[in-house]
Amino acid sequence: MRTIFFRTLKFGIMFLYVMVFALILFRLPMDILQLEVYRSIIMPRVSPHHIVNHRFCTFQPRSPQDALDERHILDSIAWPETPLLPSPVSFEQTTDPAHSTFTILPGRKGGQWHVGDELEVMIQTFDFQGRPKKSGGDFLTARLHNRKLEAGVAGQVVDHLNGSYSAVFSLLWEGDADVEVTLVHPGEAVTILNRLNREQPDRSYYKSLYRSGSLSETTICNVCLRPTQQPVCNHTDLRTGEPWFCYKPKNLSCDTRINHFKLAFEHNLTAKEEKLFKSGVNLKVSIQATGPSNLAVLPEDGQLKVKSSSVTSLPSGYYYQGVWRALGGPTVSQFNTSAITQCLKGKAVHMYGDSTVRQWFEFLNAALPGLKEFDLHTQRHVGPFMSLDNENNILVRYRCHGPPIYWPPTPTRELRYIANELDDLNAGPNTVVVLSIWAHFTTCPMDFYIRRLQSIRRAVVQLLDTNPGTLVIIRTANSRALTLQLSLINSDWLSLQFDKVLKAMFKGLKVHLIDAWEMTLAHHLPHDLHPPPPIIKNMVNSLLSYVCPQKHG
Predict the structure, then answer these.
(1) Positive or negative CA dihedral for 410, 411, 412, 413?
(2) Are 455 and 527 in a shared domain?
(3) Residue partners of 424: CB distance under 8 A and separation at least 6
């Protein structure tokens, strides 16, 4: 009987424990339970990009839908995790482009390739001791090009998570094609970039001048300020909720702030960590082929094309004879001065964002003799700018986005948020809106950038709902030349991550993208934060082709 009693008691205790545990689970909010299940599915092999150090970041609460959207976007851009190396980092165990190789895989019909086929290249990475890498996470780019034909297309790189990668190219022109594979960053460097944005979201320093009468004082500002004994001025935008903070001046009130400017940049890398960002060694260095690096592409033969199962999307376009040919949207036409004038006649073009879209404003100013810029007595880099062609009734405007922004001292009255500008815009069928917002955010927490885009997205939706016929164009991020310092501020890997978020945020809306990432990667000219004139001309032609699509028939 004692055995039966204790056995019954044991089962009773276990049943009570299960019931209590079930009750606790039942009382948890359903979205928390779903989040935990979701994490258990997607987290094992990817870096926790959405874990941000919030100890000194203060953001306003967001709606459940915005939080869900953010989580899905961050999960979609998660980067393969690089195994932790011994501390300090063992440089010899990191990816060495000089030892790494790529091989062109055989084509169909005994090694022949035709226009319309896909070319696959296998990449194998090795460390500095010549040993094969066993994990993924390296940031590689690939390009197929023909310098004589001024042809080029970006390849899609697939990480197999075991030290090998595939680069897949669409074959889009007849003739020779050369394969180019570049190690932009080893995976160990990507881990550092990820860590910096997570742990040091304030590593870019900004300042503001406060002034009242003869008193003036300058204090540090940022989206995230570390707690000190000094009080903080909350300069969060009242309409959009965009956060921005400055340490309060000792003898002045918060409402005496008169400008904003970039002060400095700081990072805390060890000497061994800095070796992971060394030009000519492991920073944007080409990988060599084990055999031929080029091939001959024959004319299209009408047979079933070879497609790779690892490719998820086609390129957005390619260059041929120096001209960008889009593979989606309208045919890209070539606009001379008179054609630009005719296209923009009676239209207002409003450009908002960073200096990469200011280049488009400057291009149109130079291309159209009838377009005269007004002297608004603003700073050359900051603006705002406005040009008008009275005879053809063309208005072109540019205004920078709100902080963070790296430029020289900018009056606070010019720190306008794009969402507010769109809400106040008198738009319609003859209005073109152009947005570019990425280059100044790459040292910020990713969730801060997502909040900014969510605010802009809401404004775009409202604009299109209330002003039908308004054309909205978004310029995406692009690659640039890199050094150690630039890698930590504006690395191509950081830019690509922000580019993916930008594209995901506006997917499904009636907006059009100019894919600056592929347009710079596919071109033969050196990468630059501000792409050279031939690329800008192709970008503006793409813009104008949306404004004035070519009529067929």
Answers:
(1) negative
(2) yes
(3) none
Cα Rg of the chain, angstroms: 27
- Residue 89: how many CA atoms within 13 Å on its side-chain side? 21
Residue type, 209: L
**Number of CB atoms found within 10 A of residue 22's CB:** 10
pLDDT, tens only, 300-344 = 986 655 555 555 578 999 999 999 999 988 999 999 999 999 999
Q: Is 147 exposed, middle or buried (0-12, 13-18, 19+ CB in 10 A)?
A: exposed
Provide the token pair at 178.
């050369």
Is the alpha carbon torsion for 453, 458, 463, 469 positive or negative?
A: positive
- Give the distance, in angstroms, between the CA of residue 91 and the centroid of all CA atoms in the same chain: 28
| pLDDT tens track for 14-51 | 444 334 334 333 333 333 223 222 222 222 233 333 33
pLDDT bin (cut points 50, 70, 90) of residue 238 is: very high
Q: Are residues 280 and 342 in the same domain?
A: no
State residue 273 phi and psi, 5-degree precision: -70, -35
CA dist 311 → 135, 152, 158, 170, 523 (Å):
20, 18, 8, 10, 21
Count how many Cα atoms sit within 13 Å of the Cα of residue 474 in the half-sphere of its side chain: 23
Name the one residue in this structure whose structure tokens are 């079933």.
304
- 291 and 369 both lie in a single domain: no
| pLDDT value of position 42 | 23
Number of residues in the chain:
553
Rounded distance between C-alpha atoms, residue 521 and residue 169, angstroms = 13
| Calpha distance 216→214 (Å, rounded) | 7
User: Which amino acid is it at 291?
Assistant: G
Q: Where are the alpha helices (DSSP H) in 349-491?
A: 355-367, 418-423, 446-466, 484-490
Q: How far is CA 91 from CA 130, 140, 186, 192, 441, in A?
A: 13, 19, 11, 13, 29
Backbone angles phi, psi at 122, to 5 degrees: -100, 130
In the sheet that 372-373 helps form, which strands lie side by side, from edge to edge? 372-373, 385-389, 394-400, 348-353, 431-436, 471-475, 512-514
How many domains in the chain? 2
92 DSSP assignment: G
Round to whole Å and give the CA distance between 36 and 293.
47
Asked if 151 and 157 count as a contact pair (C-beta separation under 8 A), the reply is no
**Two tokens at 67?**
């939080």
Instruction: Give the dihedral of Cα atoms 19, 20, 21, 26; nearest 10 deg.
Output: 90
Instruction: Give one DSSP letter per residue of 252-308, joined into a string.
Output: S-GGGB-EEEEEEE-----HHHHGGG-BTTTBSEEEEESS-SEEEEEPP--SPPP--
Closest Cα to residue 530, out of 353, 380, 400, 356? 356
Domain of 106? 91-191+275-298
**Do residues 294 and 375 both lie within one domain?**
no
Supply the CATH number for residue 423's domain.
3.40.50.1110
Q: What is the pLDDT of residue 312?
A: 58
DSSP 3-state of 205: strand
Query: For residue 97, is the peptide bond before it cis, meaning its omega torsion is within 30 degrees of 0?
Result: no
Same domain, 344 and 484: yes
